[in-house]
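Lecture 7, part B: from sequences to assemblies.

Below are the input chains for today's worked example.
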Amino acid sequence: MILPEVLLSEEQILKRVAELGKQIKDDYNGQELVLICALRGGVIFMADLARQLDPLTTQLEFIKVSSYQGQESTGKLVFSGDIAMDIEGLNVLLVEDIIDTGLTIDLLIKHIMAKKPKDLKVCALLNKNKVKHIKIDYNGFDIPNNFVVGYGLDYNGKYRNLPYVGTLPY
Ligand code: 5GP
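Predicted structure of the full complex, as structure tokens:
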């Protein structure tokens, strides 16, 4: 297997995740919070981020969507698993791996808002910075417009467990 070239090292990512966690903890300041992870890409990020937050006030939820095949977005979002809990009246933080065209986050926001949370904010680890119309409340890193893998992100199902974010040489 070809090892991707490092774009963001494990150290850089963990440092930024700790900063985001501190910011989120300070902002919610003891209030109840439901993190919703967009599977599968957000799973590693959410696992690390969640461990920075207060276990007495934080709940974890998962939603499963996909739009990519190989390195291309199909432009069509497929929901294959909704959240299980009732989030009406609760603070929700949507945790995304990466924002590219914004299609996924747009649809997820509409989908979650229909469930009437008290408040919905967005946290994304990576942002290709093409989307201007959505407020990313917590933004990990702005990255170039390359296809990246690792730290949850895959290429045809592989590389998700790579501890860093890298680019493929093809
Ligand atoms: P968007 O809908 O914003 O175009 O893309 C968001 C989703 O597409 C992400 O949640 C992720 O699953 C996938 N995606 C977007 N860019 C990349 C990328 O560079 N690498 C990988 N592996 N997935 C990506």
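Note for the exam: The chain has three helices and nine strands. Keep this in mind when comparing with the next example.
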